[in-house]
Structure formats: C-alpha cells, structure tokens
C-alpha cells in the first residue's frame, strides 16, 4: 500500500488547535497598575483574579485557532501512519491517517491540523469555526 503524505521530512509547518484561547483584560480594581491606594496607603491589588498583576486572565469559548506558541510551528522530524476507527470499536470501518512528529518536543500532530503558512492555517480555523457556529 502506498500512502501519499501532504508534507515531507524537514518541512516547517504550522499546527492549529481546538481549545480555549486565553486573553488578558485590564483589572477594573487597579486599572492595570497592580496596586490600589486606600486613604493614602498603597496596597498590592487583592482582586482575586488579578493578585497584583494588573490584568485578569480570561478564556474564549472553545474554538479552532493558530497558537502563537513556537511549539506549534515546527520542522517535521518523523512521519508515521496509524489505522484508527473513527466511529466506535464495534464498527469495522477503519481508516488510515498520517501523523507528523515535531522536532524538539516529540509531540505528534495529525495531517489535517498542519499547514505550510500561518495564513492557510488561519483560513482553515475560520472555516472550521464557521461550521461550529452553524452546528455542523
Ligand atoms: Zn488588580
């Protein structure tokens, strides 16, 4: 059996991921300074989500996005295939899929989640998120 792969060894690719992306919102108590002053005395902001950092970490709803982390932009070190059952264990409808191992981390990514450019990766995320919005 011959399996055609979309990418080659040594190629740099960008992965996408399905998760809750984080973002930071300025703390309303300390206005981003990490400090509050009460009767002329300065305290470290005690807002339970800020703790003196000046911002509050928030999470977006789960969706596809292009992570900015260098971990998701890597050179392919190893290519492998696996046979899996997309439906359930009882079904005999097996499929083959290709996965790629990232250089430094050794983490594996599936072919459908890798792209040559960040632009392509973002376009695919937009397409998948639109499908999610439409309940597909
Ligand atoms: Zn604060």
Structure described in brief:
The protein is built from one helix and eleven strands, in the order βββββββββββα. By secondary structure, it is mainly β.
Strand residue percentage = 35-45%
Straight-line distance between termini: 33 Å
Mean pLDDT: 90
Structural class: mainly beta
Identify the strand order in the major beta sheet.
10-9-8-1-11
Q: How many strands in all?
A: 11
Give the biggest sheet. 5 strands, antiparallel
What would the principal axes of the Cα set say about the shape?
Answer: elongated
**Number of helical segments with 4 or more residues:** 1
Oligomer: single chain
Instruction: Provide the helix percentage.
Output: 10-25%
Ranges where pLDDT stays below 50 over 5 or more residues in a row are none
* Small ligands present: zinc ion
Structure characterization notes:
The protein is mainly beta and 136 residues long. It folds into two domains: 12-20 and 63-133, no CATH class; 22-59, no CATH class. It has one helix spanning 118-133; strands spanning 12-15, 17-19, 22-26, 35-38, 41-44, 55-59, 63-65, 73-84, 95-102, 108-110, 114-115. The strands form four sheets. It has a five-stranded antiparallel β-sheet with strand order 10-9-8-1-11. Strands 2-7 form a two-stranded antiparallel sheet. It has a two-stranded antiparallel ribbon with strand order 3-6. The longest helix has 16 residues, at 118-133. The model has no long low-confidence stretch (mean pLDDT 90). Bound molecules: zinc ion. Zinc ion (ZN) is lined by residues 27, 29-30, 34, 45, 47, 50, 54.
């Amino acid at each position: 059996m011959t399996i055609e792969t979309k990418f080659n060894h040594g190629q740099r690719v960008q992965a996408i991921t399905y998760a809750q992306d984080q973002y930071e919102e300025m703390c309303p108590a300390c206005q981003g300074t990490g400090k509050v002053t009460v009767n002329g005395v300065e305290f470290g902001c005690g807002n339970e989500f800020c703790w003196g950092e000046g911002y509050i970490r928030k999470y977006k709803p789960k969706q596809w996005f292009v992570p900015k982390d260098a971990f998701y932009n890597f050179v392919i070190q190893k290519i492998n295939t696996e046979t899996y059952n997309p439906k359930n264990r009882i079904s005999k409808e097996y499929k083959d899929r290709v996965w790629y191992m990232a250089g430094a981390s050794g983490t594996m990514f599936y072919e459908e989640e890798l792209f040559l450019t960040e632009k392509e990766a973002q376009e695919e995320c937009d397409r998948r998120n639109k499908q999610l919005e439409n309940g597909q």
